[in-house]
Design brief:
Rossmann fold; 3 domains; six-stranded parallel β-sheet; 24 helices; 20 strands; 16% strand; globular
């Protein structure tokens, strides 16, 4: 993927010691970094000069935000720490949305930003911005390096902080004079983080209390979040569900942690989750939350959430415990470690009546749509994608209706298979995320299930996919609207579609202009054939599916309502 001339000139001052820029590159390699994303600029030229000869694959996006999303998705798909570089001022500011996305979704990311010379900081120098001040609320940790002797230690600390505990983005700001300064010692400074302690082993008494509650419960539900995937604990979670015979529901970011084809799967819960998952949570007597933070899109009205349940909460982040919902049995620590211990103490119970009731709910209010319609239904496109890929593809998404249809109608079977912006709800995430995921998993089929509005925001990154020969697939569910906004306007604003209608380009033509394959599909009968042609392509491919303009996502828990107060159930029942 990397093509460049060799034999770059040595830095003039290299003989007197390593420059800060060289220390950065050497320390990144020491940390196992083999891939980076980013955009060059004036004050990061010393770093890019050292990257010229480095054994690191470097991906240039068309915009720093896109590069940050690529690094984020690379981390989610690979389990490694993503790395992104940007220059000072506007370059660093363009990372803000990507950093906030990673922060909300607990993604391990290290951002390296250039900064003006130390003596100019605070003087409104050209392309100066208070990068650490701007990003402090949206990073797990950030710092500015003002001495070259601190560079190696700071980078080591950044990777440690980003990847341990509850993962998250860490930013290092690098003044250009520090990058060109030399360091005569070996640069092997040890990390110095006296205030940073991560608890991995859960309290044995709390684990035993959790096991006893599970063994006693008649109607339990295992509620799984993205933290299980971050902790690489899916195998242990599945072992718990199997041994204790538990129905399993997941958050959006938890999809893939449990095989949705299994009968114990309740699929996704929450605002646009499965009705049977929401009913089960509202009726259960024990809710076992693992790596989930009780987000408002999951709980609905907090006061009426899981009203009959005792709640167990397993999480690496003690700040998440009882933050949104009162917890009866907290267990703080690494999900992989705690679940392994919990499995030893739980017992199998048949719970025949509970599973019988769940089966009845599934029959009565399954996800559905009008399969007899003459127009292309977006759900049909996703369903056909799942069928033709045998539910094995990596799916990235934009945000909105397209995201929810992907979550509802693609069957996820393994972790790190769905890559989507959860907490921040970042439109424009899908395309750059597909690029990052494809770089991380070159042998995988990667499909961006996008909306036209989301795709519009970052479509220039298609040129990045073409430049690096990344065979990503993009399925645009093009309804000509900001779909979820339009749905809310229909339901709550008397169909006053204020500024939610779009005038879109011909996406197939745009794709071809950028060097990708472009296909338009506006006939229902053509959908299977077009998807097959897309999957057979070895180049980046964009398919513009002209779907039903005013199709809605059902079911839906309106804001402020309880999980069992869902709209659209009558529609779904008629479609079964």
């Amino acid at each position: 993927m990397k093509s460049k001339p060799r034999n770059s000139p040595k830095a003039a001052n290299e003989s007197s010691g390593r420059t800060g820029a060289q220390i950065i590159v050497d320390t990144l390699i020491e940390q196992g970094v083999d891939t980076m994303f980013g955009y060059t600029g004036g004050v990061v030229l010393p770093l890019f000069d050292r990257l010229y000869d480095a054994p690191i694959n470097f991906i240039n996006p068309r915009h720093e935000q896109g590069g940050c999303h690529m690094a984020d998705a690379y981390a989610r798909a690979s389990g490694k720490v993503g790395v992104v570089v940007a220059t000072s001022g506007p370059g660093a500011c363009n990372l803000v949305t990507g950093l906030a996305t990673a922060m909300m979704d607990s993604v391990p990311l290290v951002a390296l930003t250039g900064q003006v010379r130390t003596e100019l900081i605070g003087n409104d120098a050209f392309q100066e911005a208070d990068t650490t001040g701007i990003t402090r609320p949206i990073t797990k940790y950030n710092s500015i390096v003002k001495r070259v002797e601190d560079m190696a230690r700071t980078i080591r600390e950044a990777f440690h902080i980003a990847s341990t505990g509850r993962p998250g983005p860490v930013l290092i700001d690098m003044p250009v004079d520090v990058a060109v300064a030399t360091c005569g010692d070996d640069g092997l400074a040890e990390m110095d983080l006296p205030g940073y302690r991560v608890r991995t082993k859960g309290n044995a008494r709390q684990i035993s209390m959790a096991a006893a509650a599970i063994n006693k419960s008649e109607k339990p539900v295992l509620y799984v979040g993205g933290g299980v995937i971050s902790a690489n604990a899916s195998e242990e979670m599945r072992a718990l569900a199997e041994k204790a015979h538990l129905p399993v529901t997941t958050t959006l970011l938890g999809l893939g942690s449990y095989d949705q084809r299994k009968p114990e799967s309740l699929d996704m819960l929450g605002m646009h989750g499965a009705a049977y998952a929401n009913y089960a949570v509202q009726e259960c007597d024990l809710l076992i939350a693992v790596g989930a933070r009780f987000d408002d899109r999951v709980t609905g009205k907090v006061k009426t959430f899981a009203p009959n349940a005792k709640i167990i909460h397993i999480d690496i982040d003690p700040c998440s415990i009882s933050k949104n919902v009162h917890v009866d049995i907290p267990v703080v620590g690494d999900a992989k470690v705690i679940l392994a211990e919990l499995v030893k103490e739980v017992e199998f119970r048949e719970r025949e009546q509970w599973f019988k009731k769940i089966t009845e709910w599934k029959k009565k209010c399954a996800f559905g749509y009008d399969r007899e319609a003459s127009t292309i239904k977006p759900q049909y496109v996703v369903e056909e994608l799942s069928h033709q890929t045998a539910s094995e593809a990596i799916i990235t998404t934009g945000v909105g209706q397209n995201q929810m249809w992907a979550a509802q109608f693609y069957r996820f079977t393994k972790p790190r298979q769905l890559i989507s912006s959860g907490g921040l709800g970042t439109m424009g995430y899908g395309l750059p995320a597909a690029i990052g995921a494809q770089v991380a998993r070159p042998d995988a089929t990667v499909i961006d299930v996008d909306g036209d509005s989301s795709f519009n925001m970052t479509m220039t990154e298609l040129a990045t996919a073409v430049q690096y020969n990344l065979p990503i697939k993009v399925c645009i569910l093009n309804n000509g609207y900001m779909g979820m906004v339009r749905q809310w306007q229909e339901l709550f604003y008397n169909k006053r579609y204020s500024k939610s209608y779009l005038s879109n380009p011909d996406y197939a033509t745009v794709a071809r202009a950028m060097g990708a394959v472009g296909i338009t599909c506006d006939e229902k009968s053509e959908v299977p054939k077009v998807i097959k042609a897309m999957l057979d392509e070895e180049r980046p491919c964009v398919v513009d599916f002209r779907v039903e303009p005013e199709e809605n996502v059902w079911p839906m828990v309106p804001a402020g309502k309880s999980l069992d107060e869902m709209d659209g159930l009558d529609i779904l029942e008629r479609l079964i």
